[in-house]
Specification:
The chain contains five helices and no strands. With about 80 residues, it is mainly α. The radius of gyration is 16 Å and the shape is extended.
Amino acid sequence: MLAKRNLEIAERKFLDIRKFSRVNFQDFSKRYFEWVRGRIRNAKNEEGYIRRLNETFGKLGLCDIDLARVEKYMAQRLREP
């Protein structure tokens, strides 16, 4: 079983990762904002956050955004005035 699971992971079949790799952050964030717009009071603030995140992650596939990229983004933001 373990060997089979390792093979699936290596072939990117585990949890059908290929399905997620087709969606980039920008497309996902548009759908997210449509969903959140009528649900929170500060949708305008949320739109600003999304715009800022899209500058960094917009063209990346969701499966390409890992902890290292997020930490790098956070470190950059902390250095900004």
